[in-house]
Amino acid sequence: MGNRTPPLVMGHEFAGTVVEVGEGVNENLVGRTVAVNPLSSDGTCRLCRAGLANLCSDRTLIDIHHPGGFAELARAPVANVYPLPEGFSGGARVGALAELLANGVHAVRLRGPGEAVEHTVVIGAGTIGLMCLQAAVLGGIPNVAVVEPHEARREQALGLGAHAAYSSGAECREALEEHTEGLGPDLVIDAVGAKATRRMAIEELVRPGGRVVMVGLHDDATTLGFHGVVRGQISIQGSYAYTARDYEQALEWLVDGRAGIGELPPVLVTCLVFSGLMHLDVLSDVAGNETIVHGLLECLTQEGQQELYGPRRKPGLQFGGAELSDVVRGQGLELVSSQGWD
């Protein structure tokens, strides 16, 4: 990835058990399960003073500027560590979701002060989309729908609070005609970031005077018709990460059991690996398409051999809680596709 310089251990969505504290830090933290906010800012610059600490020019992120959570041990500033309640049954598995949900909390809060939002559509029901969905529902928006081409993901979204789930933008627009006086939703959150989903949000779904919040960042350049944007007075809002307040709200909802990801079965992503393709490219492609992977990854060469490519493999490396050597051998088969956005 362009903003990461190897060698670097990645991982910014994580939680764990404190095994050691630095000088001057409360030793009672040792042994506690904590969630970690990976984003730090200087707290003094103009942007920080304006409440935009997530945009601080001196911000740092664990897994970009510092080694991340895909390791046995990781370091974090004490100010970014949030102890989970003692005896909390969800433990680190739930705590690790706080960073994801914080993105959704931040995106929903970007609607303007006093801006009336009755109907919201979230495009994409991958992990970030599901978090945006729950943030919208828990944030008090009365009608929240999802657009997602995969049936299983639509069902997951409905189970997590979506009032409706549609397979396409056209289906969504048609369904909302009656409820929005033919105008469309007040707020659209694009959790995919593909060219097609950006155009869907701006040119097909959002009402005149409405707002589109961009969270997903898959494609870079996108061509849009700006006559409609100007004449429809549409607000296009980028959403980057979250503030400490967003993170704390997300963690509260997770610990209270009001938000989560539901029960997910183990998933195996089968990748067809062509000669010379490195495993890092395969993993990047999987992540770029927001496929949820629970520790089972099988890479097949054209000859059908199971093999992990790339020189950076290290013994004992964990992937989704399983030894990577075991992951590559493939245990339990369930094929899912991460495609679907044209």
TrEMBL record:
Alphabetized Pfam families for the sequence: ADH_N, ADH_zinc_N
Keywords for this protein: Metal-binding, Oxidoreductase, Zinc
GO molecular function, one term: zinc ion binding
Cofactor: Zn(2+)
Residues covered by the Alcohol dehydrogenase-like N-terminal domain: 4-86
Domain Alcohol dehydrogenase-like C-terminal: start-end pairs: 128-255
Xref: InterPro entries: ADH-like_C, ADH-like_N, ADH_Zn_CS, GroES-like_sf, NAD(P)-bd_dom_sf, Zn_alcohol_dh
PANTHER family per the UniProt record, alphabetical: L-THREONINE 3-DEHYDROGENASE
Family affiliation: Belongs to the zinc-containing alcohol dehydrogenase family.
Protein's recorded name: Threonine dehydrogenase and related Zn-dependent dehydrogenases
Species whose genome carries this gene: uncultured Rubrobacteraceae bacterium
Lineage: Bacteria, Bacillati, Actinomycetota, Rubrobacteria, Rubrobacterales
